[in-house]
Amino acid sequence: MSIRSASFLSLIPPRKRGSRASDGLRPWAPAFAGESREARQKSRDERGYTLVELLVVLAILGLLVAIAAPRVIKYLGSAKVDTAKIQVEQLGNSLDLYHLEVGHYPTDQEGLQALVDRPQQAQNWNGPYLKNRQSLIDPWGRPYLYKSPGEHGDYDLYSLGADGREGGDGEDRDITSWH
Predict the structure, then answer these.
(1) Which of 39, 59, 99, 155 is deepest in the core (most CB within 10 A)?
(2) Which domain holds residue 124?
């Protein structure tokens, strides 16, 4: 009888459930000898994933992160710039309201703090003009800069961007009230 014949597998006695080669059975006997197709499929499903399969999945996830991370970081940087622009505009509106009620913009000595705490010389102060002091901090954790009178208008209100230095491009550029 040849090894290729289908009757060869029928000569091998079926293994008992839970038996291993170390149980005294022949180590060359296939695990599926005498088992139904459903039983073979069930035993494959119960085995779980191999180390190679897990490494392939981890490699694919690593590639996805490597591709996506720079884009996400770019969006986070531009979101901070957009937030700073909005905050500068809102602080400008608060300064204008302060000017309408008090009659002048806060001095350099009073600074933006005059929008939260009443200055001693402000007689018609109806503030606070901001809900909290955190509004005076830019998205990079530094206070907004204020000059009155300003070089570009009644006041100059600005942030130095991510790098904290004048000038720059992208996320490092200055965010100003005079555009």
Answers:
(1) 155
(2) 79-176
pLDDT in tens, 6-52: 555 555 556 555 555 555 555 555 555 666 677 666 655 667 889 99
Structure tokens at 77: 């940087």
pLDDT of res. 35: 66
- β-pair partners for 145: 158
CA distance 114 to 118: 6
Which residues have a Cβ under 8 Å from the Cβ of 89 and sit 6 or more positions away?
177
User: Which is nearest to 105 in space by CA: 159, 147, 160?
Assistant: 147
b/e map 141-164, b = 16+ CB within 10 Å: eeebebebebeeeebbbbbbbbee
In a domain, 103, yes or no: yes
